[in-house]
Each structure stands twice: as C-alpha cells, then as structure tokens.
Amino acid sequence: MPATDDRPDSGHDVDALLARIAELEAEVTRGKSEKDDAVVELDDRLVLQDVGVYRYHHPLEDAAAYKDRLRDLETEMDRIIKAGHAVLAADIFTFSGSLAKGRKMIADFSKLMLRAYNAEADNCVRSLRAGNILTAKKRLQSAVTAIERLGTLMEMRVNPDYHALRVRELELTADFQVKVQEERERAREERELLREQRRAEQELAAERERLDKERAHYQSALGALRAQGDESAVAELANRLAEIDKAIEDNDYRIANIRAGYVYVISNIGAFRPGIVKIGMTRRLEPLDRVRELGDASVPFPYDVHALYFSHDAVTLENELHKAFADRRVNFVNERREFFFATPAQVRELLQEKAGGLLEFTEEPEAAQYFQSMGRWPG
C-alpha cells in the first residue's frame, strides 16, 4: 500500500523510526574495529559486508560432514542478499513528496534492518550450545518480529525464505554440536574402558605373580614333607597346589581372553528412584572395586549390588541385556548410559534365561545410607 509523509503524523512516525534505526545502527557498529569498516576490494564482499554479513570463523567450517551443507546455505543466502530480497518492503513510498527519496529511504532502512538481523543471527550461532536450539530460534524470531514492527510504516519485513535459511544454519550448527558432544563422551568412555582394561591386566598380572610365589612356597614345603615321610601333610599340600594350579589356569585364561569379566546389576534408589537399574560389565579382578568407584562419582549414596555374574564373554552378555531393555532406557540420546527402567527381578529373569546357572541375586536393595538419611532431611 503506497504511503506518504504529507500528513503531520506520518512525518512524526518517520522521525521516530529514524531515531530507532539510529539506535540499532549504533548497537550494530559499536565495538567494531577500524578493520571491520575498511573498504573491501571485491564488490560481492562489499555488498555482504554492507548488510552485516562478516565471514567470521563458523563452527562448521572445519566439520567435514557439514562443510558442504554450510557452503550451500551461505551461497543461497548470498544470492538473496545480492538480489536485494533479504528484506521485503513496500514498492511505492514517498518521502517529502518525492518517490525517489522514498525509495532511497526504504533501501537505506532495509540495509540497516538487515544488518541488525544478521548481527542477531550471527550472535545466535556464536552463542549456540548443545541443547539450547529452541532458545536460539526464539531469539532470532524475536528479531524478525521487532523488525516487522519497526518497519510497519513501510511494510518492511525479513524475507521468510532468508529467515528459513538462517534458522537452518542454526539447526545444522546445533546438530553438529550435539554430535561433537557425543564424540567427546564416546572418547571419554573409551579412555575409561582402556584405563579399566589396564587396571584389570595389572591386577591379573599381580595375581599371577602372587600365585606363582605361593605355588613355589608350597612346592618347597611339599618336598620337605615328602622327605620327612609325612603323608597326611603331603596330601593336604598336594590339594592346595591343585587349587593354586586351577587359579593360575583361570587367571591365565582371563589374561588371554579379555572379553571375560563380570556383568553387574546395580541400583541406587537414593540417587535415582526405585525401578531403575544400571547394567554394566567390568574386567576387574575384584568387580566390587568398580562398583565402589561408581558409587564415589557424583552420587550421594553407594550403589547396591543385585548381581555379579562372571562370564567368559561378558561383552556379548552385556550387549544382549542392553538390547533386551532397549525400549526402557533412561537416556535415549546417549545409548552408552547404561541405566534402564527395570526392576532387579526383571533383570534376574532375563539374566537367568541368557546365562543360566545364576547362583546369587539380591532383589531388594539394602540402601542403608539412604534410609538412615531420610529421617534427617529438611521437610
């Protein structure tokens, strides 16, 4: 709809708008270095710089899987900007009775509005963190709404197609950051797995050394008893040597077969709630050491152990249990979190089915510290 400023109130609105635009321009340009304001040699860059598109180091520039998609987005955004379609406005607008002045004012205001919008969009990208994409989208949408409100007189608004591209840029960046977070978590867990494996290997090596010394001691004593003719003591020591040989055999098997280990089922009703269990595995010689470590890390109470089951292929058994309870995961984003909505009894039934020969399983958690603490909690 054509608009003129011949009416007194129209001129007043334009003056107010000019004042607001000046404020926005001051905010956009505040803190810019002289380098930012320098003349750019290439015309295309000059056009983009003039509307606030500065090619800073984008989070996706070095991400191989995202670089091409980012480049496509930037190409399409540049095309819209260069065509002058990033901000839409009235085709006919007169200022001081001049259509040419009206068009010049619209062009200047459009450029300034686009600078403000792009500055906000770039800030959204820079400040984006994994998990806050909705906040960033709302922030950018607020900029669109503010620009449309300030530009009402000239029917000025951000092109929805251009806005959609910048929203897509936010989504790509957020998706990348989530994947980076997952990769860091995976790397952390892999390092922890390697550390645990080294500890297990060291423990097994130390146990082998201890058994060898004990075996050598009993062999020496056995020779002395045979020389004395004490057959009763010889038989007793021979049985003990057989037990040591069996322990050495088992220890050597675990050293050779690193997949062997303990599958554990534990819970922590004080830290979480009843009906949540953690199903994991450890290669440690003393599996309870691993459970105690978990209980020392960022939880108010120690874990209760429902089962410690030794398996020659603990890796496969753990994976089978995880798959069986896949639809009951607590964390569906990071599947390496081994917590499930399940009761110990439900896990016992499945463990019995998968492993058999389950000798010990405690269904009710003791949770001694939890129950002793409850009565002293503030009301």
TrEMBL record:
Record keywords, A-Z: Coiled coil
UniProt KW Secreted keyword: no
Coiled-coil spans in chain: 14-83, 177-228
Keyword match Amino-acid biosynthesis: no
Segments forming domain Bacteriophage T5 Orf172 DNA-binding: 271-354
InterPro entries: Phage_T5_Orf172_DNA-bd, SNIPE
Pfam families xref list: MUG113 (PF13455), SNIPE (PF13250)
Protein name as it appears in the record: Bacteriophage T5 Orf172 DNA-binding domain-containing protein
Organism: Actinoplanes couchii
